Amino acid sequence: MPNSSGLMNASLSVAIPRYGGWNAFSVCETLAAAIGILLNGLVILVCLTNKRMHTPFTAYLLAVTVSNFLILCVFTPLDVISSVVTLRQYGRLACHIYLYFAYVFGGVLFNAHVLITVNRVWAITFPLSYRNHHSLPVAGALVAGMVAYVHAVCLPVVVIDALYYRPSLTRYGCVLNVEAQLTWTICLQFIIYIFPVVIIALAYPFLWYKQRQRTTKKQGNSTDASLSEAASLTAKPPPRAPAKRQHTSGFIVLTVVTVIIMVSFAPTQIVFTASLLGVQRGLEIPGMIAAFLQLIQPATDPVLFMLCLGNLRAGVGQLLGWKRA
Q1: What pLDDT is stored for residue 248 in this prediction?
Q2: What confidence tens digit (pLDDT) does each residue in 209-235 have?
Q3: Is 181 helix (H, G, I), strand (E, B) or coil?
Q4: Assigned CATH topology for domain 4-220+248-319
């Protein structure tokens, strides 16, 4: 029977060596959790209390930050305990919660990021439809649908494992018997993680082109209108001013979320998928690197969102008593 580190879903942890006792990973995980709880809690508070943040996009932002907050408050302490001591002495309930967050709620966190990308794809590709149909109820329904979808795909594996396949807690620790449901586990890994990563990687260049095309068109229309007005007033039209690049905050958010997915999530999914497909050698070092990259994701998310979103930055400034954000 493989050990717990070999069975942990790559959505929240990865195949890294568990030495028993405190190590560099355990210490970094604890520090990152403390920082992440404060920052995500701050963003959640601003989103709920600041009226300027009561927009449809805030539903997606809350989906990410609330997921981060719950994982840091519930999963991370259990993961640290499992690394330093083991969860055996805390009973089966703690093990059920641990595996639920590792195998199910980790998928919610990942797809909450994907949902922001879907929102930006809609806004950039079909701007008229987005303006006419996107609203807070629609955003809330999309978030709820995403959560239900992930649970429908991932939760049966954990429930069936608990009922029929879960190995002895006292003998093997808190692990999920992946081998007993290997085919379905591989399928959900591709459905929930791999396919969205591939689609986002392929879609981003196209969306960048569409955004650049829209920006160039707007600048051209603005310049032509200015020249026509000037020509009607003077015989010599003013020289054409060089076009300045304009990037909307929406596209910046898309870029940031794409980077988060590719840097923090994609490596763990590649390592875990390789282990599911039978690769046994050469994963230890890539697994450790991937684990540390994902370790910082819950703490860096709120920082990156504050840098991208002016209203969020202003709300944080007001909450902390700063005159300017």
Answers
A1: 52
A2: 888 887 777 666 555 554 454 444 444
A3: helix
A4: Rhopdopsin 7-helix transmembrane proteins (1.20.1070)
